[in-house]
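Deliverable D4.2, example record:
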Amino acid sequence: MGRPFCGQEEILEEFQKRKDQNTLPHCLLITGPQGVGKAQLAKDLAKIYLEKTKDDQTEDLLKKGNHPDFYRVSSQGESIKKQEVVDLIEEAQQTSYYGGSQIFLIEGADQLTPQGQNALLKTLEEPQNQVAIFLTVVHEGQVLETLVSRARKIPLHPVKEKDLTQWLLDQGYGSNPYLKEAVALSGGCPAKALDYLKDGDWLHLRNELFQKLQNFRRKSLDYPFVLKDFFLDHKDQIKDLLFLMNQYYRDVLVYQKIGDSQVLYHKDKVPMMEGENLKNSSLYTIIKDIQESGDFLEKNGNTRLVIEGLLIKIQEEYL
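Output generated by the structure prediction step:
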């Protein structure tokens, strides 16, 4: 499975000891923000539960995603329906393929419907010895309290930038030109940082966008029409571009108000933010205009007109 995610080493050591003592919990609730590494921890813990000897095929099978005693359901941003839980429960009644543990991972369990949670609760009330259920959630408050009370909770938190940087260096990313930016954008979440590093095109697009935003300061009435072409050239990524713009102007507003770079999305762009002379009222207006433009595009508004109108409005705030 490779090296554990940054900040998860002690958890894995504890569960290895629990396995040696035959005291592994039947249900785990892994909580934390998106990208902090919940799914990776679940898979690393599954290896501990499933592995019979250090030389068996558990790690290789889990990597390939075809271990016969490891079952996974993911919300993929949508609700997990009761029937999906019922199907899992039926699998849990079967004998394990290798005669040991069976792991049932539900990613995004906070997206389980109430009926699905209740069905799962019945299974947890009468746990079978060989069955372990792992739940990962972002919003713990959306999970039934009775379900939470039957699980061993493992909260994951963002890690410090210096620790995440060192961990990525140890993973061999020292030569990646986007290392510093990936760490800054990740908010201390290892999985996010890895995604950014593996998608250098996205970080390049971000840098290009921010460079172009600086040109609003030239107060050229023609500039919105020039910048519009950049957006149309990246039509498939317009939502991402608007998202980045929203974050940037939100960062400028927050930084002007409290001067704390640690709460910013784009910490590495502080020097750029310090060059902004926009009033708070203008920043609020720009943020609102960006959000409304995104809404118009969601409703299939004319892309060229929506973007052109937005950029003209932003330029007006600089004049």
